[in-house]
Amino acid sequence: MSVPSCSVPVSIDDVIQQSLLTVRDRVANAARLAQRLPESIQLIAVSKTHPADRVAAAYACGQNAFGENYPQEGVEKIQALAAYRAHMVWHFIGTLQSNKTAVVASHFDWVHSVDRMKIAQRLSDQRPVTLPALQVCVHVNISDETSKSGVAPAALIPLILYVARLPRVCLRGLMAIPSPNRSDQHAPFAQLRQLLVRCNQILTENNLPVMDTLSMGMSSDLEAAISEGATMVRVGSAIFGMRTPAKDAS
Ligand SMILES: *Cc1c(COP(=O)(O)O)cnc(C)c1O
């Protein structure tokens, strides 16, 4: 597959590239308002349900971090884009079943959705020795979250201490997916930031490395997330357009 240029006539690739520029502006503006450096926020382009050539269009505009929710679909795209693999960072952000940990551990660079010890243990055991440690975030189910996945805040500390001691994963941070229809956009993001501070105190007391990543904020709420300290925003529809609802049942 060839990477399209950044200046082809109007096409779907053009639309993606324009959308990407718009999202980058949103990130930069939110950073400025929060008196943060734009470079301190990484944009992950969530390409789930969109074909590999759309990923290539974003890559042609300098986007190199991509997020996928479904193991099989993600691996197919990673393989279709193997020519650029060394320059891409692939983030697994979907709910992870234990029978899918091996394929995720073998192909992705990051997993944002670790929510129990068994999943973390399997990812560590199954991470190929030829690859660097898998970078992981723990998915926290903050109060108003509608989905059932994610660890409850009350159970977070034991999970963090367990993941931090696994040999083949590197504990990097916390992730949350607050309900999109909440009245206060900021509250759950502020809560996740406070949880990160608390976890880092406990990690320090246990002589373990602290976490540096807050994975929070999507197309509709990335500004609120950045103002509350997000270091990674996961943006899908604002870059690639709407998804087919039937294929979006994560
Ligand atoms: C789909 C998805 C996103 C991106 O959502 P948009 O609203 O399209 O930006 C981010 N994070 C997770 C976990 C997702 O499943």
Ordered list of secondary-structure elements with their pairings:
Blueprint (H helix, E strand, L loop, with lengths): L11 H22 L8 E5 L5 H9 L4 E4 L2 H10 L8 E4 L8 H7 L2 E5 L2 H10 L7 E6 L16 H9 L4 E7 L11 H19 L7 E3 L6 H6 L4 E4 L1 H4 L10
Parallel strand pairs: 1-2, 1-8, 2-3, 3-4, 4-5, 5-6, 6-7
Helix pairs in contact: 1-2, 4-5
The structure holds pyridoxal-5'-phosphate.
Seen as an oligomer or otherwise, the chain set is: single chain
Please state how the strands of the largest beta sheet are arranged side by side.
7-6-5-4-3-2-1-8
* CATH fold annotation: TIM Barrel
CATH class: Alpha Beta
Helix/strand-derived category reads: alpha/beta
Secondary-structure element order, as H and E?
Answer: HEHEHEHEHEHEHEHEH
Work out the number of β strands. 8
Proportion in helices: 25-40%
CATH superfamily: Alanine racemase
Distinct ligand kinds: pyridoxal-5'-phosphate
Number of domains: 1
Output the number of helix runs. 9
| Beta-strand fraction estimate | 15-25%
